[in-house]
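Give me the fold.
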Amino acid sequence: MATTTTTTAEPPIELNRPIQRRTKSSRSTLSARQLAHKAHEQHSVSGEIIRDVIIGFADGLTVPFALTAGLSSLGSTKLVILGGLAELFSGSISMGLGAYLAAVTDRDHYISEEKREREEVATKPDAEKEEIYEILEGYGVSREAGRLVVADLLRDEENWIRFMMDFELKLEKPNGSRAWISAATMGAAYFIGGLIPMIPYFAMKDVTHALFVSIGITFVILLAFGFVKNYITVRTKRSGLYGAVQTLFIGTLAAGTSYGIVRGINSSNIGGGS
């Protein structure tokens, strides 16, 4: 006798299933998620601020120092101070403006992609649902195991869209005040980093002596900054030592190159100088 086999079709996922009422336990779970989300936001903001400080301070410590070292070859303390301050102010403004524009561009890009994703969810829900399965399969989650996840996501359009932004487009929602914070942080860090090598020129009349003091100060700051920068990000003393040597090498190379170029131009009498 022949046997017949029956297959059970997958129950369809209802896109318009009503959202269940939140019980006391669900509200507790929601509060825990909100706290975790706030903690993640604080960690993210702290990381971004540290990144801006590192970029701004590193540029400020090397670029103005290289310029003032080069100008010191001309033998005028006043010229070094004027040229250094001009670069310091213009550089900090430029760094701040660049950081602001970068943050605004990231924000506008996120808003544009979120709008497009919202339209696709509204007009092509089946295709977007299939994309969720594809994303989960990329993490080793089978289609059968992912059905409950998909069903929960489809109940709430906002969560659905946020999931697609996080896992399909891999875009993190930017902080609304991020642009101004980034601009102020990077600009201030650049100004402080660039002002440190210039302090001896304000206190000493002999430009050569001021140059050597500036080199000594910058040498110590470069080592300390390079160590702290890598230690904060990697959390090992070995990486901190590597960062100290790397930062010192880059700063020394920049200063030496600038000094040699300016001294060479001055010796060649370009511009009709005597």
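The radius of gyration is 29 Å.
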